[in-house]
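name: query_chain
kind: protein
chains: 1
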Amino acid sequence: MKYFILSITLLLASCTGMPDNIKPVQSFELQRYLGTWYEIARLDHSFERGLSHVTANYTVREDGGVKVINRGYSKENKEWEDAEGKAYFVDKPDTGYLKVSFFGPFYGSYVIFELEENYNYALISGPDREYFWILARQPQLDPELLQQLIAQAKSLGFATDKLIMVDHSGSPQ
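structure:
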């Protein structure tokens, strides 16, 4: 039983780690990060598969954590899908390193490793290089800037050839 508990603890702890050579931003200001972000690009995962018009909205929770509402449109189901989660700082509140949960006691890393000085775009990693997002305050990024961000992610070992560019065009309904 002791080994089982230790294994589960190690497994859960590994979900809040970060990839080698990825460093969270310092001097992070949560108040400036709050609000709506548009998902510009992502690596594929079942929990977002087939969604367009994806946004993430961050607000402060009563317990001091961060309320996360992810929203996207499923063309297949012809409806909006929402997921509500919660996030907490792993280290200090001025470091862009949080753990986020959408499923009870299970947390995954949310590592902000690039953040434009005016908080206009961000590069996000999960616990490993299989999780990667480009977020922005507007539904589109300048194409040249987007290519620079993709090149940066590629240089850090992310599989940018597998990026899904999120559609924000037109009205999904």
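note: The domain at 22-165 is CATH 2.40.128.20 (Lipocalin).
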